[in-house]
């Protein structure tokens, strides 16, 4: 089935990792792309992401098919953009449950000896853990910048530090472009990938986008080199090493993260908190991505989601296929706005 709204002329609103991926893939597909953002590419909630490509084990949900392809899509992107800042470390997850956990796709159950081999600094390796060797982490801002550079190299025009104030329609009700603080930008299709701002941009058009800001604390810590080797996920934190002497962590509070790291790993006496950032990740009310055209506003397309870093490579390619090539991607069928 073809999409009659296919367009070679589009404006992408939002240069976070999702918008950057859409712009890159659309430009690569031959579209004339304009990418616009209120700040610099990747400077919003993308910069506040823990950036774990962790989609193995997914079995159900509207975006299950999309999520299980996440690592494969990033490996494809690595081939297209050599030097992409991705680290395929694998991930280890455990909690305090007494029973043996169940492994999902791409996962295996490992014992304490294997945990100790994978993470030698763990004080008391759990009896069981879930090992996902195909997972990893990314430098989310670095990936975004590479995607924007890739879009530019294929002719995309990029307007940073330029806020979009309203989506404009023509006399027939079809999208005509966007008004910005720097003037009007025309486009036959407008892709809203503006995170939590997507709802405000949709409202004047009569489009309700059920997405709310969800706080996402991110902590940066100084730590000994090689302290953490994989992505480690426990009931207390998600943790990974991002440089020789740097960790990032997602947890509830700075006090809890420091106490948890010190109690979980040996050699942590010198670990110190360097910074705390509280991002506002876009969270659809059902937790699943909202991706697809808006029937009531011809030419308008939405791409807003939680797990944006994980899904960005896949979503960018699929959105470009729908918007530029006119295909209708079945893997996105559960992500449409009309499910609400």
UniProtKB/TrEMBL annotation:
<dbReference type="InterPro" id="IPR006076">
    <property type="entry name" value="FAD-dep_OxRdtase"/>
</dbReference>
<dbReference type="InterPro" id="IPR036188">
    <property type="entry name" value="FAD/NAD-bd_sf"/>
</dbReference>
<keyword id="KW-0560">Oxidoreductase</keyword>
<dbReference type="Pfam" id="PF01266">
    <property type="entry name" value="DAO"/>
</dbReference>
<feature type="domain" description="FAD dependent oxidoreductase">
    <location>
        <begin position="9"/>
        <end position="321"/>
    </location>
</feature>
<protein>
    <submittedName>
        <fullName>FAD-binding oxidoreductase</fullName>
    </submittedName>
</protein>
């Amino acid at each position: 089935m073809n999409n009659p709204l296919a367009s070679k002329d589009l404006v992408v609103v939002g240069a976070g990792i999702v918008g950057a991926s859409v712009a890159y893939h659309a430009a690569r597909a031959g579209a004339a792309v304009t990418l616009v953002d209120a700040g610099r590419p990747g400077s919003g909630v993308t910069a506040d992401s823990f950036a774990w490509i962790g989609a193995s084990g997914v079995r159900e949900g509207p975006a299950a098919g999309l999520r299980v392809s996440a690592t494969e899509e990033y490996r494809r992107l690595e081939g297209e953009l050599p030097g992409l800042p991705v680290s395929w470390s694998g991930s280890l997850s455990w909690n305090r449950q007494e029973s043996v956990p169940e492994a999902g796709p791409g996962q295996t159950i490992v014992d304490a000896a294997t945990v100790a081999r994978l993470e030698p600094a763990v004080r008391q390796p759990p009896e069981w853990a879930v090992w996902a060797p195909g997972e990893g982490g990314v430098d989310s801002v670095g990936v975004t910048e590479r995607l924007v550079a890739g879009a530019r190299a294929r002719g995309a025009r990029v307007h940073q530090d330029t806020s979009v104030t309203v989506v404009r329609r023509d006399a027939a009700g079809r999208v005509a472009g966007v008004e910005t603080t720097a003037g009007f930008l025309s486009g036959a299709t407008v892709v809203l990938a503006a995170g939590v701002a997507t709802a405000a941009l949709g409202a004047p058009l009569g489009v309700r986008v059920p997405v709310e800001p969800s706080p996402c604390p991110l902590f940066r810590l100084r730590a000994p080199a090689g302290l953490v080797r994989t992505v480690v996920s426990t009931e207390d934190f998600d943790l990974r090493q991002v440089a020789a002497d740097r960790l990032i962590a997602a947890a509830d509070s700075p006090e809890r993260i420091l106490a948890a790291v010190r109690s979980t790993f040996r050699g942590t006496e010198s670990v110190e908190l360097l910074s705390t950032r509280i991002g506002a990740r876009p969270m659809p009310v059902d937790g699943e991505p909202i991706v697809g055209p808006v029937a009531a506003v011809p030419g308008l397309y939405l791409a807003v989601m939680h797990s944006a870093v994980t899904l960005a490579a896949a979503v960018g390619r699929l959105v470009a296929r729908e918007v530029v090539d006119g295909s209708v991607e079945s893997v996105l069928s559960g992500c449409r706005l009309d499910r609400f």
